[in-house]
Design a protein that fits this description.
Number of strands: 13
CATH topology of the domain at 81-107 and 211-386: Rossmann fold
CATH class of the domain at 81-107 and 211-386: Alpha Beta
Number of helices: 12
Distance between the termini: 47 Å
Helix content: 25-40%
Radius of gyration: 19 Å
Order of helices and strands: EEEHEHEHEHEHEHEHEHEHHEHHE
Structural class: alpha/beta
CATH architecture of the domain at 81-107 and 211-386: 3-Layer(aba) Sandwich
Largest sheet: 6 strands, mixed
């Protein structure tokens, strides 16, 4: 609505926001949308929020879609921030909450990003969208493309959870299974997209999925009465949610809604696929590809992320960190979280609880700090993990 331009995340060079864009033409890095926040602040105020729609479009002025008619929505966003008192008591924590993204329309946080990306595709008049997906992103694209009347072409590893594959097919998407990882799926799209007329909506290879994900940060601040938590623990594959929240915090500070204090941001990965953890530990500015990546948490099986350098900077700027947990522990913690708090979380969400236990043991998080864990999806989509 108040979108002014796109900026390269590496060098800051301005790009045109009136035409479809993928990576920046200058550095081949992600592009971030920029807004006239002074203009947005004329109508987007804290006082205006209670009377607004209870989805992510309540923050309409800082989302990129220009025309109301182009918004493609299924009611995504404004998911609950649930206190977790029993888990907190087990760990000796004063305050623990879980942001439950499984309550989105397609049962994962991917609904936010795809709602924005598909809305922008509709605005630009695009007809065919393609994405590599380990599961939930594919389901979200299938749903929102169907809602918009667009074609969805989804490339998934052959061992993607069956529920995700069925979801995509039953929503009318064209599904191709690849013997390999999500990076191999992305490579196949890159080889074919020009000839097929597809627009690539891969994680952070287009500018607008991150805008949907940043609403996590806006919601979190609003739900906590504009006092951000001391620590956020987030499962990290492509990292869009992590960097999106950081972008939201900067915007909210510029709007005058929060101060300069930030949560410690912690990235959680699987031991079998931990490129960000290894890069953080070696103080690298970019992450090497994790060769032979494997984990049952399909959303964490991303051996190389295009936004690695942004994630690593966020972790360091926030005085946070990166931690890897084994599959066996995160799968066991699905039951611990479920039995304690009534949430059947995805393995990625349980991994955050596993990580919290370790971070408390090392002193990276203190027991008097306010902590928020993110459950990014529904456990029912991972039934093969529990057979």
């Amino acid at each position: 609505m108040h979108l002014t331009h796109l900026a390269c995340t590496a060098c800051g060079q301005t790009h045109d926001a009136t035409v479809p864009q993928n990576l920046s033409s200058c550095c081949s890095k992600p592009l971030y949308p920029a807004y006239d926040l002074a203009a947005a602040a004329c109508t987007l105020t804290k006082a205006s929020l209670p009377g607004r729609r209870a989805d992510m479009w309540r923050y309409r002025e800082v989302l990129p879609v220009r025309h109301e008619a182009d918004i493609v929505t299924l009611g995504e966003g404004f998911t609950p921030l649930l206190p977790a008192p029993r888990l907190a008591a087990r760990l000796g924590l004063a305050q623990l909450a879980i942001k439950d993204e499984s309550q989105n329309p397609t049962q994962s946080f991917k609904a936010r990003g795809m709602a924005t990306a598909v809305s922008m595709a509709k605005q630009f008049g695009l007809r065919k969208l393609a994405v590599p997906s380990a599961g939930n992103a594919g389901g979200a694209l299938a749903a929102y493309a169907a809602r918009a009347g667009l074609e969805a072409h989804i490339f998934m590893p052959a061992d993607t959870p069956k529920a995700n594959i069925i979801e995509c097919r039953e929503l009318g998407a064209h599904v191709t299974l690849i013997n390999g990882l999500i990076t191999d799926c992305g490579a196949e799209i890159a080889r074919r997209k020009q000839a097929e007329g597809w627009f690539d909506v891969s994680t952070l290879k287009e500018p607008y999925r991150v805008e949907g994900k940043k609403t996590l940060g806006y919601e979190l601040a609003e739900q906590l009465d504009w006092q951000l938590p001391d620590a956020i623990i987030y499962p990290t594959g492509g990292g869009t949610g992590l960097v999106g929240m950081w972008k939201a915090f900067e915007e909210m500070e510029r709007l005058g809604w929060i101060d300069a204090r930030r949560p410690k941001m912690f990235s959680v990965q699987a031991e079998g696929c931990q490129p960000i953890v290894r890069a953080f530990q070696t103080q690298a500015t970019q992450a090497a590809e994790h060769v032979g990546a494997h984990t049952r948490a399909s959303g964490l099986r991303v051996p190389k992320a295009v936004a690695d350098f942004i994630m690593l900077q966020v972790l360091r700027d926030s005085c946070g960190g990166a931690i890897a947990v084994p599959d066996a522990e995160m799968l066991a913690d699905v039951r611990e979280v479920g039995a304690a708090e009534g949430l059947f979380v995805a393995p990625e969400g349980a991994a955050c609880y596993s990580a919290l236990r370790r971070l408390l043991a090392t002193g990276a998080i203190a027991r008097d700090e306010r902590v928020v864990l993110f459950n990014t999806g529904a456990g029912v989509k991972y039934l093969e993990c529990f057979e």
